[in-house]
Design brief:
Helix content is 26%, strand content 29%. By secondary structure, it is an alpha/beta fold. Strands 1, 2, 3, 4, 5 and 6 form a 6-stranded mixed β-sheet that branches. The longest helix is centred in the middle third of the chain and has 11 residues, at 46-56. It starts with a strand and ends in an 18-residue tail after the last helix.
Length: 115
């Protein structure tokens, strides 16, 4: 099973993980989606958000932007981060499964990896 977490705003990847109000969790068996749920995130501090993410135990967190602090917390927890990703949540999730998130259509405008 693969579990991904994506901060969402409406049907798109939320601009910043740290300030998102909802986190979408999708579980896959192979290429088939087996579970999807949303977690309310708006009432929690950054450390509480991190604890929630750790308990959810995703294989990867996919987001547009993230603060250095939250990035370091994810790294310390051993959670894979895929950053700089924009677009429709369903298309992003499908691209992740097919290892196609490097396509230009999913890159947040102006995002430069490693900068």
């Amino acid at each position: 099973m693969i579990r991904i977490a994506i901060p969402i705003f409406r049907h798109r990847v939320s601009p910043v993980l740290d300030t998102c109000t909802r986190l979408l969790i999708i579980d896959y068996e192979g290429q088939a989606e087996v579970n999807r749920r949303e977690v309310a995130f708006d009432m929690y501090s950054p450390s509480e958000r991190m604890e929630i993410v750790k308990k959810l135990n995703p294989d990867a967190v996919i987001c547009c932007g993230i603060s250095d602090v939250f990035d370091r917390m994810l790294q310390a927890a051993g959670i894979r981060l895929v950053c700089g990703i924009a677009g429709d949540v369903q298309q992003v999730a499908e691209a992740f499964l097919c290892n196609r998130l490097d396509a230009p259509c999913f890159r947040m405008p102006g995002f430069k990896p490693g900068v």
